[in-house]
Amino acid sequence: MDREDFFAFRDIFGPEHRASLLGAFVLLGFAYVFEHFANLYELAYSIRPTSTYVGDLLLDNLPTFNLNLITIEGALFAIVFSTLFVASKPRYILFSLKALALFVAIRALFISLTHMGIYPGTIGPDGMGIFDSIYLYLNFQTGFFFSGHTGLPFLMALIFWEKPLPRLVFLLMSAVFGTAVLVAHTHYSIDVFAAPFMAYSIFKIAERFFPRDHKLIQDAL
Q1: Which of 18, 59, 181, 200 has the fewest Cβ atoms within 10 angstroms?
Q2: In the chain, how long is the greatest CA-to-CA distance?
Q3: Where are the domains of the chain?
Q4: What gap in Å lies between CA 105 and CA 51, rounded to an integer?
Q5: What is the 3 state secondary structure string of the chain?
Q6: 85-134 pLDDT tens trace
């Protein structure tokens, strides 16, 4: 029998892991608060005259298509899918939550540092539907580096690297979303191509910071 079968969802709430679970939610909460204020800062900065768009080799030569169905509804569906998938793998919950917290916090830091204007012709959400509203809250269309659409699925692929099917699904998500945000001109190319490297760095940081949670995954392999 696979050793993973001996670790159930209820074990996450047991005495051995309860403090780690609480810590994961605290870290995630702080990360999203940090991201919220980083987005507000970025939004305020974006109206300054110094925030202008820059040239981009790919965007300058790619036609623009409306891919909101992928970049908005598809991305939100991917978040729900990923959440349910991780929840179905109890050994992965603690490490995944903490790696996500690091991802959110580090990306919030990066979008606070350098400010570029929105590329001309970008097709963003109209803000009229519920999915658009959720998307706009999570991303004010002013924080570019690095692409969360590309980086987050890649981070999930790294977490589930030893499981071929989930790894393939998350890598495909990363490629599809990365291509979509480029074609829709909602990200600069550097945001997309740097995202896997940033995700890998965050994964290695999470391994170093949370070895017990990562060992929980390794024990089932």
Answers
A1: 18
A2: 63
A3: 3-218
A4: 23
A5: CCHHHHCCHHHHHCCCCHHHHHHHHHHHHHHHHHHHHHHHHHHHHHCCCCCCCCCCCCCCCCCCCCCHHHHHHHHHHHHHHHHHHHHCCHHHHHHHHHHHHHHHHHHHHHHHHCCCCCCCCCCCCCCCCHHHHHHHHHCCCCCCCCCHHHHHHHHHHHHCCCCHHHHHHHHHHHHHHHHHHHHCCCCCHHHHHHHHHHHHHHHHHHHHHCHHHHHHHHCCC
A6: 999 999 999 999 999 999 999 999 998 888 787 787 776 666 566 666 66
